[in-house]
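Lecture 7, part B: from sequences to assemblies.

Below are the input chains for today's worked example.
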Amino acid sequence: MADLKGMTGKIARVDLTSGTVTVIEPEEAVYKKFLGGAALGTYYLLKEGIADPKVDPLGPDNMFQIMVGPITGVGPNNRSVTVTKSAYNFIGISTAGGQTPSELKYAGWDGIQVVGKASKPVYIAIMDDKVEIRDAGHVWGKGAEESEDILRMEVNSEVETREAMLRDADLTEQWAAMRPPKRLGTGHKRLAKVWVIGPGGENQVWFASVMTEAGRSHGRYGTGAIMGSKNLKAIVVRGTKGHPLADKKKYLELVHAIQADELKNYSRKKYGTASAGTRTSYTENAFPIRNWQWGVWSDPHMLGISGPFMDTASFVRKQACAGCTMNCLFPVQITSEDPMMDGHASDMPDWEALGMVGGNLGYFEMEGSTPSDPFTGTLEDHAEHLAKLQYTTYIHDDAGIDFIEGGALLAMLMELRQRDLITVDDVDGIDIKWGDVHAVDEVIKKLVAREGIGDVYAKGVWETAKYYADAKGKPEILKYAQIGHRYAQPAHGVRTGADKDAIEYVTVSRPCEHTGGGGAGFIKGDLAAGIAGQNTKTAGSDSMVVCSFSAGNFAGKYVDILKAATGWTDFADEDLVKVGARQYAMARLFDIHTQQLKDPKTEWDMLVTDRWFDDPMPNGWAKGKVAYEGNKDKLFNETLPAYWKERGWTEDKGVPTLDTLKALGIDDVAGPIAQQHL
Amino acid sequence: MTRVERRDKAPEPKPEEPKTGGGGISRKEFLEMTGTGIAGLVIGGVVGREVFPKAAAPEAAATPEAAAPAAGGEEAAAESPYKAGYSIVFDPYQCTGCMACAVACSEKYSLEVFPEQTANMVNLEFSRIRPVRFSYVDVVNVCFDCKLDELEEGTDLAPCQAVCPEEAIQTIPEGEGKAGYYGMGYKYVDREKCLGADKCWRCSEICEDQFGSGISFDPIEKKAQVCGRCGGDPECVKACPEPLALQWVPASINGRFFAHTPGDYAKLLYRKMFGQRRTL
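Predicted structure of the full complex, as structure tokens:
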């Protein structure tokens, strides 16, 4: 193995069936092609045959990966990426921050790959080179936060845990008499970091998250369900080996420059992503309100979603990922007159929660009024609405499930009840309606436990819509599942064209993902710019791996910092773009192959909610607007083929051609699959 | 929406008039120069088995200060960046747990002690200060510099010092030691005397048993590490990006008062910040 810098050159593959650990040592050329994170993980999914339709996502043959990148460690911010076949049978890639990613690098690993299935609940304990599979019976069934508190104490480095050696002779007389040691030895350091699943992941809820630090989640695509399917409760890491760097001086200079720049981002530093809620709503009219029936409130005095309001009402402190000076997460304590909610610790909300389990569930309007009406409540009502939103965030986080998919599901149920398409009995007697946090609490408990109708809900919004459409004989129900590629649309609307263009949700390499990075290019109608944005995002943010919120702070420095870390002096800007192009091509082939799509466009790409095209915006400056002026045909038969062509994929199916794969240098791993679908 | 015009640059400045006296050196520039000057100096004394040559204290007279008497003579006397009798305190509301302090500390001491082994490496195990992350709570774990009362405790040494069988943990008095590393009344571990964690961990044990968790061991030779406040000018405080999160302040009397293990600290913070009782 070459003496790598930036990376450690080692990936641990843990087989839970046999209880063995093998060390994978990728060639340096592999790192140069895929860096780490999303691209490297996608490469291994293809290489190990996980794209094979016979590999059941929730079966032992699927591979769960958690990957970091060459910048992870002492980067200006640090994130990890879960990569696996999602329970939905498409590619599942999700990122999260915190301090755990750096710790994995310090332990000497670029990633963990888990295959097989343990016979009973276990967790993986990593102490530098030592990777152990340990019993997790004592935390199975516990919430994500409590499990993490317990597991953090169980892994220490060798020098941090010692038997008692002090004797009375070591002490002064006074101490020996009054303060004799408890003879417990050492072991009070708490430096281990934890990735963990909650009960949602244990019960294989399709949209279960992999959590860390209570409020940070690899939230999308249900990668936590894959951990649960393997009886894997957690991965606990403690590392003492540091981050190897080719040119440390230059690297730290760049880190400090980026950190200094991040410090200037007052809005993020003070309010986090919550600061963007008002922009998405009032400026872009692209906010999810009541399952996207509205995109903005007519009354601009909607205090409850503004950063300063939420900060003043509830933010307790601020918390950063390792290395980051932007600290966009704000722990809160919920204050409410409702004892169910009062007193819980939660976080923020962030932008997606604000939309998906806030506006989307009708939490912000007074009972009996709609978003088109004036707000008639008081300041206290605003604060109670905020509490509902924070509580709903909390129950999702602690159960370890995604509040984007969860929010879309809850909002759909509410709209189906609003339109009398389903009855109270169809929701197992729960009278779910707009703004009702108690009904939400009951539904979430049911779906996490997979009791009764909760077993259907646990498969997400699209499967639930299909179930009701069949059971009630009402195909129109499908329209109220706000999805793209069978998966919930996040809190960015496409009808006004100000936030996102619909093509971005259709083409992003993970189904309906919101941070794809092509937005500006696509909104201007510039496909090449959009593709470049997507490539840079998936390579730079998701494979290096750094935070997309700091993309502006990294601008112009991605390749410099990568070179300082790795020592790859010949690595150029276009190489970074190529990493992204490789990830996109491989992810596309994965999705086509695992679902065995004959006609990907109609079977897969066109699975988006008709609301984008059919339901005009009811109010606001964008009143009357729909995506693509209501012309679905234009999106899928003009723009999409043009996009595919620009990528070097076939115009009829969007399959990367063999020439394209060869030019990207991935014909060996992706060619055989492409050949079956061209 | 109303657009806010933002202007980052000040209006074009007038050409600056040359300063009279003082050789054209501003007060700020002067401070920077003396800071780097002293950091390079070795102030005389014996530390462990290392002998440092005496450095003439009045050497400062050769600095521009002589040519540029500062406005107030009293202030000029307090120019040294190295402060005695100070302590590091953290504010759990302001600290974000970003690790900047730990990176700065580990960089300083890994390069000092193991320059070759860490030339291509950043390793936080060399750090004497570590933020410890609990969910929603961060605790900055560092030596709290216990100052015990001899009448009460039978010793005025810090607990780690008191139990060390080799006298490896020392307090280097003001005016001795290696400027920028130890001295000024702060702690120092004589690495040659320290037995290493394979043979002895009394310092760490007494600290965790009754005080905090201020002792760590380096990952190469496993010798004890304890915060010596960088000899009175701590790098961590300078590296901290959050105003007031880490402060370098004149020490209050500190017997056992500041000492809590990270878990205990976090438990108390859960009570204070979130009104919750937790087992950690």
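Note for the exam: Chain B has a mean pLDDT of 80. Keep this in mind when comparing with the next example.
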